[in-house]
Each structure stands twice: as C-alpha cells, then as structure tokens.
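Page 42, continued from yesterday. The earlier attempt failed because a stray header line got pasted into the input along with the sequence. Redoing it now with the clean sequence only.
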Amino acid sequence: MKILVPVKRVPDPATTIRVMPDGSGIATDNVKWVINPFDEIAIEEALRIKEKQGGGEVVLISIGQATWQEQLRTGLAMGADRAILVKTDTPLDPLAIARVIAKVAENEKPELVIIGKQAIDDDSNQAGQMIAEMLGWPQATFASKIELAGDKCTVVREVDGGLETIAFSLPAVITTDLRLNEPRYASLPGIMKARKKPLNEIAVDSLGVDLTPKLKIKTLAAPAKRQAGRKLGSVEELVAALHTEAKVI
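This time it went through. Structure tokens are written below.
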C-alpha cells in the first residue's frame, strides 16, 4: 500500500509568537519551526499501517520554500520512504494547497492520503475535506482509530457528543485527531538514513494548478491582554455587578 502524507511547517508550539507592527503576518526571526503536530500523527499512523502490513511505501509531501526540507527530513528520519517538496515562495491559501496535493495524488496514485485534521498556525481545517472532494474519494475526518482489511477501511471518528464508526472502500482521505496515536521520535540511525532517502523537488508552476487565492488575510493582531479581576466585598455587590455590568442575571 502506498500512503501519501502531507506535511506542513509551523512554528513550534512553545515559541512566543510576535505579530508584525503592520499586522501583515508574524515575525519569523528566532522562530523554531517544526512539523505540524497533527501531521506528525498522520506520519505515525502511516508508518504503523506499513509495519502491520509488512510492506508498502510512505510518501511525504510539503508545499513551501527550500527550507521546508528540514521538516521533510524529520519525517524521513521517523521512517517515511521518500519525500516530495513542491517549491513556492508565495504562501498559498487552503484551496490552492488542496489543489496541489490532489494533483500530486493523481500522479502518485496512493491508496490512502492521511493528513492532520488542521494546522496549528491557521487552524483552517479545510485541506483534507477539499482534497477528498477534488479526487472524488471517500473521506473520514477527525479519526481516532483506523482499521484496514484488504481494500476496505473502518474509521472511528470524533464527533460532537461521542464517537462515530464509518466504513468505506479505498482509495480514501483520512484526517487525524489527537487520540489516534503517539508519534515516535526519530532515532539516530533513522536520522542518518534520512540523509540518503529520496527528496524530490517540483516547481509548483509545473503542476498546472490554479493557484489564484480565494482567501485573503487582511490583518493579524495579538489577542487583547486579559483585564485584571477585582474583589467584591459582599454577595450583594456581586449580584449587583452581575446584573448591571455583566448583564447575566
């Protein structure tokens, strides 16, 4: 089985994010970049499927600048077989990203596309669903358990109020939730092997995909600082504040 895993480069969750003074984006100096945590879960699940089946191929794909090779090499060190970097210096919106991945999937012909349910930088939660629609494949979002039997797949997915189990035939698109697995660390031998694994670079313009943005971020702003609380001297003062200020009673 061939599994395609899209990987996004995002700021480390532990990094302090600073917004540019003009609101055009975040300041990238001194920012540590990592694989999107949900995509790490997708890589781990693809590796587990390959190991359980005793063979197959896990192919990573990322869309960005040459520096994004670092995150792809990390995924290769985890155990993926090869990687594809679709090079572009222009940030793409979720629709364009979905179009690029769908085009690569058409060329690679995987049985599964496993992708994180969302990226922690923009939290769009759109790419997986759009990829499935473009390919005309079944989809299972927010997966917390995946089972394969031949060309059939069963997924337990997180929904409001509980769990839902769905079944479908391959090929398909699955987006991963936090409870699916715990990603492995890249071992030293894995890091050494990753240096020799294939990493193919493709110019985004060569794919013939419409990259016209449909989404425009007008401005970014840091969250407002929380206001300090205040102490009230009695229950009567509390009730009065809730009634006249908070207007909740």
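Notes: Residues 138 and 172 are 5 Å apart (CA to CA).
Reminder to self: strip header lines before submitting.
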